Amino acid sequence: MTDALKPKELECLEFALEVYGGNEKIIDSTDLGPVCRAMNCNPSLERLEQLGAAKKKGEKQLKLADIVPIVVTLKNERKDEGCYEDFVECLKLYDKNEDGNMMAAELSHMMLSLAEKLTDAEVDELFEDCLGEEDDEGQIKYDPFLRRMCELDPPLKKKKK
């Protein structure tokens, strides 16, 4: 089944398995999400469980032969994922003045409370990498944020204080 991936994709997958599983290239199924994200797939937690991820560490191990069909399935499903334009349309709902700005606090609230909720630490990291400065009224330009988040623009390089 490894022939279903391009050689470069297979090399990337093998590297991800080495990172998460060591030299044996066998991962705990709780690491399936990060491995899939390394392959440019972004499945939901529910979808990962459907594909064989366990909720608790140590319940199940996966090797390359187990993961290739999962990655192929996810790559074939990618057309159903949201894209930059979809996210722009969503955030326009929070753009009260229709000027490309929204409240940073609303963006944070959405990420902490809607769909697959992020943790405070994950939101902080995302904002550090992708969110520009707020203006005096707490507004941010959401387009540059989305462009960085969707990897259309490079992430910000903020210096630690």
Question: Could you explain the architecture of this structure?
Answer:
With 161 residues, the chain is mainly alpha-helical. The protein folds into 2 domains: 7-79, EF-hand (Recoverin, domain 1, Orthogonal Bundle), CATH 1.10.238; 84-150, Recoverin, domain 1 (Orthogonal Bundle). 50% of the residues lie in helices and 7% in strands. It has 8 helices and 4 strands. Strands 1-2 form a two-stranded antiparallel ribbon. It has a two-stranded antiparallel ribbon with strand order 3-4. Helix 1 (7-21) packs antiparallel against helix 2 (32-38), helix 5 packs antiparallel against helix 8 and helix 7 packs across helix 8 (142-149). It is elongated and about 55 Å long. The chain starts with 6 loop residues before the first helix and ends in a 12-residue tail after the last helix. The model has no long low-confidence stretch (mean pLDDT 86).
Fold blueprint:
Blueprint: H1 7-21, E1 26-28, H2 32-38, H3 45-50, E2 61-63, H4 64-77, H5 84-92, E3 101-103, H6 104-113, H7 120-130, E4 139-141, H8 142-149
Helix pairs in contact: 1-2, 5-8, 7-8
Keywords: Motor protein, Muscle protein, Myosin, Repeat
GO molecular function: calcium ion binding
Protein name: Myosin light chain alkali
